[in-house]
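Is iron/sulfur cluster placement plausible here? Inputs below.
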Amino acid sequence: MFAEIENGENGETLKDIEEEIRNCKKCELWKSKTNYVPGEGREDARIVFIGEAPGREEDKQGRPFVGNAGKLLNELLESIGLKREDVFIGNVLKCRPPNNRDPKPEEIEACSPYLIRQLNVIKPDVIVCLGRHSASFIFDLFGLEFRGISRERGEVRKVRAWDKDVFIIPVYHPAAALYKPPLKEVLKRDFEKIGNLLKLKRKTPTLSDFGFKS
Ligand code: URA
Ligand code: SF4
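Reply from A.M.:
I modeled the complex. Tokens:
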């Protein structure tokens, strides 16, 4: 099982990966979970949204972002003309940590190869990191230095992957905006940026023209 960003095709599908996840016992979390939450969405999505781990409602339903944070995510997607069906939504961990505690490093190490393989199948143009755990993992994966979510949020990074330019943008976790309402405005503005990024990606990839970081 490979666990790095790889170019080319290896015939793997999201369904294959999902099936493996549903039999996984690579870390302790399988014991306490109700359902695995492999993630869902289009295999040919241009944009993916990556959260941290399933919460209570996700664990119950086996689907990502279906609780209160998910409702806010749906609203934010709609605000930039996207529906859940247009994108891929997933998490770094596929099983819920008890009481939504932070993921342990060994859990991320055990589970993240699934996410990496999902990304290698989808080969998205844009990766949106929802919250600091997701952002710190994705930054690591692409060899970027992560300076904390409040400094990185809303900043677009450009990396090379899958023989093309790929944009990474971290935002606050929707759940954080539910706890701290002022963050919701920031999140909305960052989503506007994501909407522009998608339009831009359709026309031209020269982000530096617009003052974005690479
Ligand atoms: N929070 C996450 O990070 N992921 C989910 O799927 C739900 C809530
Ligand atoms: Fe397997 Fe990931 Fe669940 Fe751990 S969290 S048991 S690695 S699917």
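Short version: Residues 21, 24-27, 29-30, 36, 93-95, 107, 110-111 surround iron/sulfur cluster (ligand 2) (CB under 6 Å).
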